[in-house]
Amino acid sequence: MEKVIWLITMIPTSMVFTGIGIFAWKRKKPMWFWAGTTVDEFEISDIPAYNRANGIMWICYSAVFWISTVLGIFQMDTAGIVLTVGCLAGIPVLIIAYRWIYEKYRSK
After folding, report:
1. CB 79, CB 6: distance < 8 Å
2. What is the rounded distance in angstroms from the CA atom of residue 54 to the CA atom of residue 85?
3. Helices 47-74 and 76-105 meet at what angle, rounded to 10?
4. Over the stretch 37-87, which tens digit does the pLDDT of each residue have?
5. For range 17-37, the mean pLDDT
6. How does DSSP classify residue 35?
7. pTM of the full predicted structure?
8. Are 38 and 72 in contact (CB under 8 A)?
9. 28: which DSSP letter?
10. Closest Cα to residue 66, out of 17, 20, 33, 25?
């Protein structure tokens, strides 16, 4: 039963982060990172490349969730460790990656 609950929880969660990546990649206006903020079009020099980089960032982050989802079918303990470490390390990595992306594509 724990595997069913794991899958019911993890598959939608994984899909959300993958969906954010796809949304960012296909977005015509610049993608934001922080909740409640926006990035103006004049701030970004190459919007498609900026959004593609954002999309890749989120899709890479979702990989932690997908890997953990699959591991949960076979090894719940290992899946929990991967998810915990991936989230705890992943959030600061996301912040650093986004700042790098923003600075790379920021209009000067």
Report:
1. yes
2. 22
3. 170
4. 889 999 999 999 999 999 999 999 999 999 999 999 999 999 999 999 999
5. 93
6. T
7. 0.91
8. no
9. S
10. 17
Phi-psi category of 36—alpha, beta or left, where left has phi over 0 and alpha has psi -120 to 50? left
What single letter denotes the amino acid at residue 94? L
Please state, in angstroms and rounded to a whole number, the distance separating the CA atoms of residues 108 and 25.
Answer: 23
Report DSSP state, residue 107: -
For 42-74, the DSSP string reads GGBS-HHHHHHHHHHHHHHHHHHHHHHHHHHHH
Question: Do residues 24 and 55 touch, judged by C-beta distance below 8 A?
Answer: yes
Distance CA 59, CA 37 (A): 21
Q: Report how far residue 55's alpha carbon sits from residue 97's, in angstroms, rounded to the nearest whole number.
A: 12
- pLDDT > 90? residue 34: no
Q: Provide the 10 A C-beta neighbour count for residue 85.
A: 12
User: What sign does the CA torsion over 23, 25, 27, 32 have?
Assistant: positive
